[in-house]
Amino acid sequence: GIKCCINPSILSADFVNLQAELARISNADAVHVDVMDNHFVPNLTIGLPVVERIAQVSPVPLDAHLMIAEVDRWAPLYADAGLDSVTFHVEASNAPIKLARELRARGAKAGMALRPATAVEPYLDMLPELDMLLIMTVEPGFGGQAFLDITLPKIRRARAAIEGSGVNVALQVDGGITEETITRAAEAGANIFVAGSAVYGKPSPQEAIESLRAKGQL
Ligand code: DX5
Ligand code: ZN
């Protein structure tokens, strides 16, 4: 099957010991960094200077999930910070095609995220512009929420479109991924799984990553 990746979210890590928290997930495929601005979502986390430093010390590639307004202005600066991939929300962008191209031109993989109630169909022609499509499986803003099964048909439709157009686009899910829900998301077609509480909430994040990976690999 398609390669399965586990990207732990540092939203559930200890923010005062980030370097040590990164060392605890050194067997992950990438680290997922949630950037929130209290406008696009009702929560606030970290911004560019901190993300830039995390990228410098991380043992694994950094994947930034930007839950911020005015993303057309901000996302390119994250690409310039040398991140492996930068994911913006389509609801926050006025020019998603231009933005995806700009991210790639600056050397980052281009990711585009959809909130749970945002349909994927209007964006299917954009797949060749993307390296990753993120389908949110909770309303963005907080860790530890329950997986929304209502998003499963959308994941299936996105996977069918990716296979149908033959593009090399990863399909990521984020929110409520546990050892139980990961199977449903994988069967629907997701291949990159973000997990916050299901990794950092466990005594051994490394073992949690291995166990999730085994269940997410079909
Ligand atoms: C939510 C964030 C997620 C969050 C996931 O808005 O985008 O990345 O950290 O946390 P869990 O895995 O606990 O649902
Ligand atoms: Zn996220």
Short overview:
The chain has 218 residues and is of the alpha/beta class. The chain is 34% helix and 19% strand.
Question: Features of this protein?
Answer:
8 strands; 8 helices; TIM Barrel; 218 residues; binds D-xylitol-5-phosphate; binds zinc ion; alpha/beta; eight-stranded parallel beta sheet
Tell me about this structure.
The structure is a single chain. The chain has 8 helices and 8 strands, in the order E-H-E-H-E-H-E-H-E-E-H-E-H-E-H-H. The chain has helices at 18-23, 48-57, 71-80, 96-105, 152-165, 181-188, 197-200, 205-216; strands at residues 5-8, 31-36, 62-67, 85-89, 109-114, 132-136, 170-174, 192-195. The protein has a single domain, classed as TIM Barrel, CATH 3.20.20. Helix 5 runs parallel beside helix 6. The protein is globular, with a radius of gyration of 16 Å. The active site is at 34 (proton acceptor), 174 (proton donor). Belongs to the ribulose-phosphate 3-epimerase family. This is Ribulose-phosphate 3-epimerase. Its EC number is 5.1.3.1.
Topology:
Layout (H helix, E strand, L loop, with lengths): L4 E4 L9 H6 L7 E6 L11 H10 L4 E6 L3 H10 L4 E5 L6 H10 L3 E6 L17 E5 L15 H14 L4 E5 L6 H8 L3 E4 L1 H4 L4 H12 L2
Parallel strand pairs: 1-8, 2-3, 3-4, 4-5, 5-6, 6-7, 7-8
Helix pairs in contact: 3-4, 5-6
Bound molecules: D-xylitol-5-phosphate and zinc ion.
The site of D-xylitol-5-phosphate (DX5) has 22 residues, from strand 2, strand 8 and helix 7.
